[in-house]
Structures are given as structure tokens and as C-alpha cells.
Amino acid sequence: MARCPVVNLLRFGSRVARSGFLRPLHAAAGGSSTEPRTGFKPDRVAVVTKTTRYEFEQQRYRYAGLSEEDLKQLLAMKGSSYSGLLERHNIHTSNVEHVVQSLQSAGIEVRVVRRGEYDEEVVRWADAIVSAGGDGTMLLVASKVLNKDKPVVGVNTDPERSEGHLCLPVRYTHAFPEALERLCRGEFRWLWRQRLRLHLEGTGINPTPVDLHEQQLSLEQHNRAHRISTVDRQQRAGALHPAYSKPSLLPVRSLNEIFIGESLSSRAQLKVFTPRLFLHRASYYEISVDGGPWEKQKSSGLSVCTGTGSKAWSYNINKLAEQSVEEVLRIGASQAGVELPLSREFLEKVTDDYNASLVFAPDEPRLFYSVREPISNRVFSSSRQRGFASKVCVRSRCWDACMVVDGGTSFEFNDGAIATVTVSEEDRLRTVLLDQ
Fold first, then answer.
1. Order of strands across the sheet with 44-49?
2. Angle at which helices 68-77 and 82-105 pack, to 10 degrees?
């Protein structure tokens, strides 16, 4: 491998030491996808590794003092393969070692960090961060990077089992030295992925997050974690029911989506002699889009996504199947008294065009909101079930609700709390695009 000249690395390191952060090495930041003017030569890199399923199962049953043989039998009882999990773990570990050795061979100081150890101090220490895992690890890494000039690079360490849409092309998993060479020579593009920021205000709110990445929490455990963090914070503040008159900016940024809704999808309500089971607890809230009037809604929850997230959950919430398109077109043709060529090709084209309209570029400075399964009656309405916006405000009327950021960080969001979701150029994430 042709290494970056050591003198360049030393000069780069001295610039970082003087300035305290990584200076942009690209053309003016006004463009969201830009060609670098010079190579990308970090001095210190943090490699954040995912927790494999094998590691998770070990941690999960460690408290019971299980041996490896006990773990094998327990996994077999659950229909999981111990040897299969160990094989995937070894593949991941080998690929992480390959990335670390490649960085060290290029004269770069490396710090390997597990997901549970990743925090703001690690972000401050590093000039760049490598996410070694899949898309979930990339989302975790991105959530804590608040400086838009700090690059984040994703490496898919198990390409056969992970999509890795947010990572480098799969071939660089086994050829990371080549990726480093191209970064050093400037043969890549910066992609500035737009993210969402969250402001929280109102009564009884708790801006302390519960991290869901390392914990496979039951609903009861999840609620207990929120209650513990709430009590601890209130005791420190000396307040039982704190209120935030001014919006408080939460310490995370969302690269994919924010979901707001009740925690319970089912609950049992017991009355004297009359047990009742409610199969669904709807989320009750008020919503205002782009400063418009507040609208009361009940639904299965609200999703707000970026262009990056528009290919994920948001897409699956809103996409239509050919069967639905065909039925609507038949009714429309009948009502209008016209003939439509409802061939397979025509239906496929209409369906694909509609579904494609749900996806937008990751660098676009706007958001897309989706109301899941809205309830409409004389009290509650849903004038628009989905749409693009620059700001969405939500006032909670829920009893046991959460805001979940990128599926990994949860905030309480109960009656009286107000969340404002916006986009800002300051929150863009600096990522790398490499050709195949």
C-alpha cells in the first residue's frame, strides 16, 4: 500500500492540536456533495465496533454463571445455532482487525471502542470515526457527532448478513488499505447527510435519554429505566415536576428517523369483576406543520424522517402494493366513466412511480412526516397523513409515550411535553462516498 507521507500526517496532527478540531479539507461547505481539494489525512481515528449476537448472548446470561456448553444448549433450545453465531462473530472480529491494522500501518493512531463505551469524550478525541458494524452501528455513531466537520466512515464488517446502506461499498471491507489510499489521494466525494434536531419543552419532561442499543429491554424494563433517570434528575435539580419554559436542545441528532408514540401496543385494564383487554392504545397528540394550526390526532404514532431515512421505515409505512393501486384505479375509472389500460406493466409503472416519490436525497434540507394509521371521527382529524416540511411540532397528550431516535435512544414524551423537529445545516453529517 502506498502510505500517506509521514510529514503530511505530522503537519495535519499539528493543525489539529492548534485548532482543537478537524478543519474542513474540502471545497466550500455550501454544497452538500463536494469533491475534496486535497486528501483526507486524519491523525487520530476511533473505531466503534458493534456488539455481535454471540457477544450479546454471552453478556445476557453471564450473570447466571453459564458455561459455554450451557450457552450452546440454551441457544439450541431457542432454535439458534451456537456455531453459526460464533462464526459470524469471528468474521466481524477479523474484519475489525483488518481495519485497525490498515489504519495503524498508515501511521494513524487508533482507538478501538465498543458500542457501550462510545461517548462524547471519544468523539472529542478523534479526528474521524470509523463505524465497524452495519447500519445500526452507523446510526449510533452518527447520533453523538454534533460537529459537522468531523467525518464518519462506515465499514460493513459482516456483508453477508448486514445491508450496510450507510457504509462503504462491500469490497472495501476486505480491501480497506485501498480505501485509505483513495482517501489520502482525494479520490472520493463528501456527502453531507442532513439530520434532524429535537427541541423539548413543557411540563414534566425528562431530557435525559435511555440508550436502547446495548439493552434488549422489555416494556417494563424500558419504563423502569425512564423512571429511574427521571427521579435521579429531579433529585439533583430539587424539583418534582420541572417545566422548561424555553425549548431545550436534546444532545442527539437523528440520521434516519424519529418516532413518537405510546409505549404499549396492548394493555389489560382491570375493573372490579370486569376484566377488559384493549388490544391497542392509540397515541393522542396535537401536531402543527410549518407553523400551521394545531390539529388533534389519534393514531398508531408519528414518524419524522430525513432523506437518508426515507428509504427505511418511512418508506415501508407509506408504500403501496400493486393490488391497492389497481383497486383505486378501477374505482376511479368507474366513477369517471373512462377506460384505463390496467395491464400489469401499467400498474407496475404507476406503483413504482408513487413509491419512488416517497424517497428523497439524503442531503436535502427538509423532513418527511408520516401519521401511522390515523383515526378520523368528529373529534379527531388528519387533514394530511404525510408530507414534506421544514418543521414539525408535536404536543403530547399521551400517558406512557416515548420519542425514539434512530431506534436506539429513547426520551419520555408524556402529557404536556412539546417536541419541535427541525433541520439545520449545522447538523449535517460529513460522510464519504467511494466508487466501487
1. 33-34, 189-193, 429-433, 151-156, 128-133, 44-49, 109-114
2. 120
Residues 166 and 130 sit within 8 Å (Cβ to Cβ): no
Cα gap 428→319, rounded to integer Å: 27
Give, as one character, the DSSP assignment of residue 52: P
Q: pLDDT tens for residues 212-271? A: 765 554 444 444 544 444 445 444 444 444 555 678 899 999 999 999 999 864 333 433
For the chain, which domains are there? Answer: 44-187 (3.40.50), 196-311+360-426 (2.60.200.30), 319-358 (no CATH)
**Rounded distance between C-alpha atoms, residue 249 and residue 146, angstroms:** 12
Note the Cα 353 to chain centre separation in Å. 26
Question: Contact, 255 vs 406, CB < 8 A?
Answer: yes
Contacts of 165 (CB under 8 A, 6+ apart): 135, 311
CA separation for the pair 14, 17 (Å, rounded): 5
- DSSP H helices, 50-153, are 53-62, 68-77, 82-105, 120-125, 135-143
Q: Are strands 409-412 and 301-305 parallel, antiparallel or unpaired?
A: unpaired
pTM: 0.80
Strands (E), 115-256: 128-133, 151-156, 189-193, 196-203, 210-211, 243-249
